[in-house]
TrEMBL record:
Alphabetical list of SMART domains matching this protein: HDc
NCBIfam families membership: dGTP_triPase
Enzyme kind, highest EC tier: hydrolase
Example of a GO MF term: dGTPase activity
EC number: 3.1.5.1
Domain HD: start-end pairs: 56-203
Record's keyword annotation contains Hydrolase: yes
Protein name according to UniProt: dGTPase family protein
PROSITE patterns: HD
Gene name linked to the record: dgt
Record-linked InterPro entries: dGTPase, HD/PDEase_dom, HD_domain
Keywords recorded for this protein, A-Z: Hydrolase
Domain of life from the UniProt record: Bacteria
């Protein structure tokens, strides 16, 4: 499918130009304010003043690079079967859009907003992404949204106070999502590519952030602690996908030692060349191990997956991040502070405190909230928070500066 430019805009000698719809999707995402603010949101460690730590824009570029390599491998298999290949513009659009629903401070703020939104349809980052890309201002194709639709269930409008975060899509997105599910009643191949590229990026490059945050020696000491292996095993066996595997403990033990000897030894060497080699090697190792399941009748329903060995190795790397940082006392203190930040900024926007600012012209855009019911108002408040950088939230809460972004 192609959109052609109006011929009248070009002189006769100019060549005809056409752009694929996926290219248009890609351009819309690049122009999106939600995409352009990703560089102001940290990826793992909520420390926005440290530029050595990755932000969500850097993460999106990493995911895009990995997804491109995976797509090249998939396309080779499709070509061998004389099947149409995947448009890289679709991959670019989906990888650069996949995190635009994240609020400042990532998953910590996601949990805080979800607690606030339990009576208003919940908050979940992927659901927020789907909400954004289906807005009229983005208006991306069904196939691109299908690549981003990780969870196929609707989030309940109201939940019990003690209920945990539910992954899915918002009720107000149901009409659009139903269109996708009617058109694509199975996951499309691009969904597998984006999700796997995201997992690989998180598993590998989050470790790079932890080394930058803790120091090599401190991180190595955590890895060599007596409890690390038992905690990894506990985390993996709680996953129903791995529960019934024979000799799981022995396999994880072997893979953990392999990761330490073949990846972390080079990565923690302190030599930039060895660090880069280790990162590139393990990324390609995961991609080379991929298993392909081509659907000749409907190639867009083809599948890719990691074999058990590689899948467990990826799970171990993810558990290392959880154990070394996410469950670390340092991060738990961060989470308490972030929860307070998010509650304060939400209350300021939702309860119309901006009205007390008199002639503050920077707050005029917030008048949109004045004419909505509570559910709509809460959802728009979440949208506004997702347009804030972490520094803007910190400045507002700690230094009592006015918000300057709603002009």
């Amino acid at each position: 499918m192609y959109k052609k430019y109006d011929k009248s805009r070009f002189s006769p000698e100019q060549e005809k130009i056409s752009i694929s719809e996926f290219r248009c999707d890609y351009q819309r995402i690049l122009r999106s304010p939600y995409f352009r603010i990703l560089h102001t949101k940290t990826q793992l460690i909520p420390f926005p003043h440290n530029h050595n730590l990755r932000n969500r824009l850097i993460h999106s570029l990493e995911v895009n690079e990995i997804a491109e390599i995976i797509t090249e491998r998939v396309n080779n298999h499709l070509l061998k079967n004389d099947l149409p290949t995947i448009d890289l513009n679709l991959i670019h659009a989906a990888t650069f859009a996949h995190d635009i629903g994240h609020p400042p401070f990532g998953h910590s703020a996601e949990r805080s907003l979800d607690n606030i939104m339990k009576c208003f349809g919940g908050f979940e980052s992927n659901a927020q992404t789907i909400r954004i890309v289906t807005e009229e201002s983005h208006n991306v194709t069904l196939r691109t949204v299908a690549a981003l639709l990780k969870h196929k269930n609707v989030i309940p409008l109201k939940r019990e106070e003690e209920a945990n975060l539910i992954k899915g899509y918002y009720q107000e997105s149901s009409i659009f999502v139903n269109k996708i599910l009617q058109t694509y009643n199975q996951p499309v191949i691009e969904e597998y590519i984006i999700e796997l590229a995201d997992d690989i990026s998180n598993a590998i490059y989050d470790i790079k952030d932890m080394v930058g945050f803790f120091s090599r020696n401190q991180f190595a000491n955590i890895l060599n602690s007596n409890t690390i292996l038992s905690l990894i095993l506990e985390g993996i066996t709680s996953n129903p996908n791995y529960k019934n595997i024979d000799n799981l403990e022995r396999i994880i033990n072997c893979l953990f030692n392999e990761i330490k000897d073949n990846f972390l030894e080079d990565f923690l060497s302190g030599q930039i060349s060895r660090e880069r080699y280790a990162l590139n090697k393990i990324v390609i190792e995961f991609i080379d191990s991929l298993e392909f399941y081509i659907n000749p009748a409907k190639p867009y329903y083809s599948k890719i997956q990691l074999p058990l060995h590689s899948s467990l190795k990826l799970a171990i790397l993810i558990q290392i991040t959880k154990i070394c940082f996410l469950k670390n006392d340092i991060n738990l203190k961060f989470e308490i502070r972030i929860d307070d930040y998010i509650k304060r900024i939400f209350n300021f926007l939702f309860f119309d405190n901006h009205k007390n600012r008199g002639s503050d012209t920077n707050m005029r855009q917030l008048e949109i909230l004045d004419h909505l019911n509570d559910t709509e108002k809460a959802r728009i408040t979440c949208d506004l928070i997702c347009q804030l950088s972490e520094r803007e939230v910190i400045n507002f809460v700690e230094k009592e500066k006015d918000l300057k972004v709603f002009i």
